[in-house]
């Protein structure tokens, strides 16, 4: 009997506590910038695709939900011919972002991806690619790489000397 | 055997090796760059440093390069001593100073020896703050991509290209850290083995251009152990697929056959598998000229009805189809109505080769054994273009005699730089008699160019010099001197090797070669005899039937047969077009099974899509009589399947209709006891490691749940393989599978092709569990007499010019010639003649000459070749216009009338 009355009292008391329930979706929760949500592909400061199709994200993915095919443009710049993420399999672990050597693939604070049809959770490159640089600014892989992919000539990088003239006789 | 102590643990190792080899053979991880099991040691990179102690009381020891230090009994070394580790880490740090930040866009990434070694040595952070040296790249042709920034100056490329393959157009330029590896000026790398630089280079300086345009990492490829189908040698390859297209071919080490290297035709000639000309679905042509697609079941039903209604069905097999496919066709048509799909001339030649291999008592060496012979006589064969990989082996064999000098000086065989210093470019006894100067001539001591008949006469004369009991032929003065020189050199050698082949379509040439080999054997030499054959399964096919194409035609002409099934064969490449046209006019119902659309297919009523080597499994027999299994790489998403699987649908015998590959082989060996060894060519489909199949995909294969998600988000069941113990997935046994079932080489810490070290019993030796393939023919008991069919001396005839076939590595082979990357390297059809003949005929280079071969007029641009002795002309073999010619052909020859 006493325990019943005590329970009633406790429930009654809670009516005056501050409410923890958030009125989602009218009221959006705060998500920190490093929150691991929907995956995007970003662009470098020059507005070109950052992804160089190195396949490291696909290799790191524990559920193997990333699939892509590398190809090259006329300058020899590598980019993905297609880039597909099957979000119905994705576990938002962020390993792909960790593995990415060019900051191309990034997880952003957006989780509102629910679909009635599972097929709609298959995202292609055009759904993934955004027009900005995402969380990491100022990095362009081809400026620091050794290859000439139309971004800088051989030896044009910050820490590169001019190409060697193999026919010079100087020591 | 010797006992060495590595970090105080005793190991049994082979005497005469170097310490690096010994360490790797016992499974130790030791870093290296410049050493290569086939190129041996030069001690250039300083990466395999170990500490060597004087005795067990020595605690300090001294740092030595393992690759330059011979194995000695009771030697004590340490790999793990802190000084040695530090030395290796510092060394790699300096090698990496200029290495660019390229891995994500580098094709070597993930299978890079430099990556593996860097991780192994523990170097992980670039401390050097100054600028990186850069280089400009060169265009090196359609096969190789050059990215010189990545070079770590190990010199392997020049050592392979210049020293091993003896290429002339590659080299090293500049000095100190500016050293540059490339050509004098950008251009196509000419050597036929340039593709091996992809595997020889420890990093990404040379990468496969054919893979580059749709690049895939090693871990994402579905691989299968396969056999190269582009010539008769049967080199072992790894074929790899991704997203339904074949992506690349790598060498698959086989200690008996190709070892570490394959030719460029084999490596880059695979693209026909992805060609637009592939037949994808069953087709029906009725009425003539109207094609319609058929469903698989409908096609089978309709063809089955035709077979039932037919009076007699004949089957035309093919030397490029597997034993199993040919066998099922034979079962379908009946043994007496199964015909080898080659001309009478070719079939008789190969029969003759088989006869000699079986009964001459002279050993036919494997490709690898070829490298142990010390004197070679090549008779009539342009080896580099007819059986390319053999040329590379012959080049190594030619160095054996000069190497004796180094042996006398007690220089170990792995001490490459020292041996070269002793040899000083001296040539060994390699002699070549061919109708024209061949690409191997630069390695030869002496060469001789003459008409095939004259070459046969020359070879008969050589045999006579060796053993007077052999028939002799009268020779012109120059040839006489050459014959004597060759005979003397062969007799002086310990292991002389005779190389001949079917390429000139001369039976007397084959007999002459046998005569020389038998005479040498009689003289007590350990002689060898190698014949090259035109196609991948030429030998296997001729072991199954005596009947040839002309007999099949006869069956149709006489009205006895009213249905023809042609398997993987373009008859227009076998006989002159007018004969084949006539045949098809009378042939009744024609069913063609092939992978590629060709002229024969145009005459078919039904065309069924057959698999190439990539989509089918089977067994082929190479020129030495070695049966080797190749496995399907991937399951295509259309009706393409192995030819023998298609034929199963029409066979009435129950044991065959629902059989898997093993059952077919079982039936095959029952029909042909000589082919018994085919069963042992690879483990059967029931084979398991424990309970596991062997995965075709590496365990890090990616994208499984996304690669087909655009079609349907629900993943399909992976395809099953009832014909082999290999699975089409990444699940299964991770470890070293039996050698014939090795789909790729990988071992923890060894992601590059150098992981093959871990699959060998000892480095550079046999694969664990024995090398794949079974020899079906062994030389035993000589029951052959000397041949006496010496051809008459050749006399030029200015009205009937003799046309001799010229071979080209790129172009002469039917299927590889369809590959896109090869197009740039395939020469346009030409007519070559000697300067004197050109002058007599008033032909200028580039001018069109008119030929008339079996009623067909052909205009070809003239090329003048000073190496030709005159009296005959050359025309490339295998081009569409010349493929059906029955060489040697004769023709009138005149400048084109304007």
TrEMBL record, chain A:
BP GO terms, sorted: aerobic respiration
The keyword Repeat is annotated on this UniProt entry: yes
SUPFAM superfamilies according to UniProt: 4Fe-4S ferredoxins
Domain of life: Bacteria
Recorded GO CC terms: plasma membrane
Record function comment: NDH-1 shuttles electrons from NADH, via FMN and iron-sulfur (Fe-S) centers, to quinones in the respiratory chain. The immediate electron acceptor for the enzyme in this species is believed to be ubiquinone. Couples the redox reaction to proton translocation (for every two electrons transferred, four hydrogen ions are translocated across the cytoplasmic membrane), and thus conserves the redox energy in a proton gradient.
Membership in a protein family: Belongs to the complex I 23 kDa subunit family.
Protein name: NADH-quinone oxidoreductase subunit I
Source taxonomy: Bacteria, Pseudomonadati, Bacteroidota, Chitinophagia, Chitinophagales
TrEMBL record, chain B:
Protein name, as recorded: NADH-quinone oxidoreductase
Domain 4Fe-4S Mo/W bis-MGD-type: 221-277
Role according to the record: NDH-1 shuttles electrons from NADH, via FMN and iron-sulfur (Fe-S) centers, to quinones in the respiratory chain. Couples the redox reaction to proton translocation (for every two electrons transferred, four hydrogen ions are translocated across the cytoplasmic membrane), and thus conserves the redox energy in a proton gradient.
One Gene Ontology MF term: metal ion binding
Keyword DNA repair attributed: no
EC assignment: 7.1.1.-
SMART domains: Molybdop_Fe4S4, NADH-G_4Fe-4S_3
Domain of life according to the entry: Bacteria
Cofactor(s), names only, from the UniProt record: [4Fe-4S] cluster; [2Fe-2S] cluster
Sequence ranges assigned to domain 4Fe-4S His(Cys)3-ligated-type in this UniProt record: 83-122
Lineage: Bacteria, Pseudomonadati, Bacteroidota, Chitinophagia, Chitinophagales
Family listed: Belongs to the complex I 75 kDa subunit family.
Keywords carried by this UniProt record: 2Fe-2S, 4Fe-4S, Iron, Iron-sulfur, Metal-binding, NAD, Quinone, Translocase, Ubiquinone
């Amino acid at each position: 009997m006493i325990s019943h009355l005590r329970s009633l009292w406790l429930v009654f008391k809670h009516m005056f506590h501050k409410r923890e329930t958030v009125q989602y979706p009218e009221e959006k929760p705060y998500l920190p910038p490093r929150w691991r949500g929907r995956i995007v592909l970003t662009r470098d400061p020059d507005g070109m695709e950052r992804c160089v199709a190195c396949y490291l994200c696909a290799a790191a993915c524990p559920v193997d939900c990333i699939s892509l095919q590398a190809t090259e443009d006329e300058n020899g710049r590598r980019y993905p011919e297609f880039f597909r993420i099957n979000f119905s399999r994705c576990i938002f672990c962020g390993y792909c972002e960790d593995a990415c050597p060019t900051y191309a693939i990034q997880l952003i604070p957006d989780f509102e991806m629910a679909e009635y049809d599972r097929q709609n959770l298959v995202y292609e490159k055009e759904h993934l690619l955004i027009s900005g640089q995402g969380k990491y600014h100022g990095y362009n892989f081809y400026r620091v790489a050794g290859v000439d992919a139309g971004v800088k000539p051989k030896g044009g990088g910050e820490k590169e000397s001019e190409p060697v003239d193999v026919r010079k006789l100087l020591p | 055997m010797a006992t060495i102590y590595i970090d105080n643990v005793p190991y049994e190792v082979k005497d005469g090796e170097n310490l690096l080899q010994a360490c790797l053979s016992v499974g130790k991880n030791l870093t290296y760059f410049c050493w290569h099991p086939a190129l041996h040691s030069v001690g250039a990179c300083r990466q395999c440093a170990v500490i060597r102690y004087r005795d067990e009381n020595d605690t300090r020891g001294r740092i030595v390069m393992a690759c330059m230090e011979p194995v000695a009994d009771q030697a004590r070394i340490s790999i793990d001593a802190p000084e040695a580790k530090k030395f290796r880490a510092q060394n790699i740090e300096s090698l990496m100073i200029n290495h660019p930040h390229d891995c994500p866009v580098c094709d070597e990434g993930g299978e890079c020896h430099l990556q593996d070694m860097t991780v192994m040595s523990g170097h992980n952070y670039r401390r050097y703050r100054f600028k990186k040296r850069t280089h400009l790249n060169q265009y090196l042709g359609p096969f190789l991509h050059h990215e010189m920034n990545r070079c770590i100056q190990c010199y392997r490329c020049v050592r392979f290209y210049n020293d091993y393959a003896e290429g002339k157009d590659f080299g090293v330029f500049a000095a100190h850290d500016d050293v540059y590896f490339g050509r004098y000026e950008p251009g196509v790398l000419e050597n036929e083995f340039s593709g091996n630089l992809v595997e020889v280079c420890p990093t990404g300086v040379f990468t496969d251009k054919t893979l580059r345009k749709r690049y895939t990492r090693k871990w994402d490829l579905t691989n299968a152990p396969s056999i190269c189908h582009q010539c008769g040698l049967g080199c072992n390859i790894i074929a790899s697929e991704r997203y339904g297209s074949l992506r690349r071919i790598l060498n698959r080490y086989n200690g008996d056959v190709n070892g570490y290297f394959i030719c460029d035709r084999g490596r880059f000639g695979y693209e026909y598998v992805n060609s637009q000309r592939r037949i994808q679905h069953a087709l029906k042509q009725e009425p003539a000229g109207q094609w319609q697609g058929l469903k698989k079941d409908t096609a089978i039903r309709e063809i089955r009805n035709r077979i039932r209604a037919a009076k007699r069905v004949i089957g035309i097999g093919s030397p490029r189809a597997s034993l199993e496919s040919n066998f099922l066709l034979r079962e379908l048509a009946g043994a007496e109505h199964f015909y080898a799909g080659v001309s009478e001339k070719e079939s008789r030649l190969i029969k003759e080769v088989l006869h000699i291999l079986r009964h001459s008592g002279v050993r036919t060496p494997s490709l690898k054994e070829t490298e142990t012979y010390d004197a070679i006589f090549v008779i009539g064969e342009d080896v580099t273009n007819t059986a390319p990989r053999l040329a590379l082996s012959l080049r190594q064999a030619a160095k054996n005699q000069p190497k004796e000098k180094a042996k006398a000086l007690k220089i170990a065989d792995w001490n490459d730089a020292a041996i070269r210093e002793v040899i000083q470019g001296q040539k060994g006894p390699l002699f070549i008699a061919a109708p024209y100067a061949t690409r191997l001539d630069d390695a030869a001591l002496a060469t001789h160019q003459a008409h095939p008949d004259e070459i046969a006469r020359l070879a008969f004369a050589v045999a006579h010099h060796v053993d007077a009991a052999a028939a002799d032929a009268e020779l012109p003065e120059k040839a006489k001197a050459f014959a004597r020189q060759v005979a003397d050199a062969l007799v002086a050698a310990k292991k002389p090797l005779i190389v001949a082949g079917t390429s000139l379509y001369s039976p007397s040439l084959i007999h002459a070669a046998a005569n020389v080999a038998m005479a040498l054997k009689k003289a007590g030499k350990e002689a060898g005899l190698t014949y090259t054959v035109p196609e991948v399964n030429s030998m296997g096919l001729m072991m199954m039937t005596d009947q040839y194409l002309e007999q099949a035609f006869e069956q149709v002409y006489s009205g006895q047969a009213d249905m023809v099934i042609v398997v993987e064969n373009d008859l227009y490449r076998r006989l002159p077009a007018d004969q084949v046209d006539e045949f098809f006019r009378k042939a009744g119902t024609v069913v063609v099974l092939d992978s590629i659309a060709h002229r024969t297919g145009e005459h078919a009523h039904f065309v069924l899509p057959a698999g190439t080597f990539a989509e089918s499994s089977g067994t082929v027999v190479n020129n030495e009589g070695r049966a080797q299994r190749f496995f399907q790489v991937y399951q295509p998403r259309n009706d393409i399947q192995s030819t023998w699987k298609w034929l199963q649908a029409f066979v009435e015998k129950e044991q065959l209709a629902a059989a898997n590959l093993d059952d077919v082989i079982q039936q095959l060996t029952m029909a042909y006891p000589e082919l018994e060894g085919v069963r042992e060519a690879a483990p059967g489909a029931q084979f398991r490691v424990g309970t596991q199949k062997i995965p075709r995909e590496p365990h890090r294969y990616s994208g499984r749940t996304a690669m087909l998600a655009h079609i349907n988000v629900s993943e399909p069941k992976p395809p099953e393989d009832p014909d082999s113990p290999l699975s089409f997935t990444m699940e299964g046994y991770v470890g070293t599978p039996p050698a014939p079932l090795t789909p790729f080489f990988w071992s923890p810490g060894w992601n590059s092709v150098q992981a093959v070290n871990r699959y060998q019993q000892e480095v550079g030796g046999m694969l664990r569990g024995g090398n794949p393939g079974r020899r079906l023919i062994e030389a035993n008991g000589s029951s052959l007499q000397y041949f006496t069919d010496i051809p008459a001396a050749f006399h030029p005839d200015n009205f009937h010019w003799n046309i001799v076939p010229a071979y080209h590595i790129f172009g002469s082979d039917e299927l590889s010639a369809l590959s896109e990357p090869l197009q740039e390297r395939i020469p346009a059809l030409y007519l070559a003649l000697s300067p004197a003949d050109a002058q007599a005929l008033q032909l200028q280079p580039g001018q069109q000459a008119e030929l008339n071969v079996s009623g067909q007029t052909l205009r070809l641009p003239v090329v003048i070749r000073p190496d030709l002795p005159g009296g005959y002309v050359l025309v490339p073999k295998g081009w569409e216009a010349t493929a059906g010619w029955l060489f040697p052909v004769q023709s009138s020859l005149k400048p084109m009338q304007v």
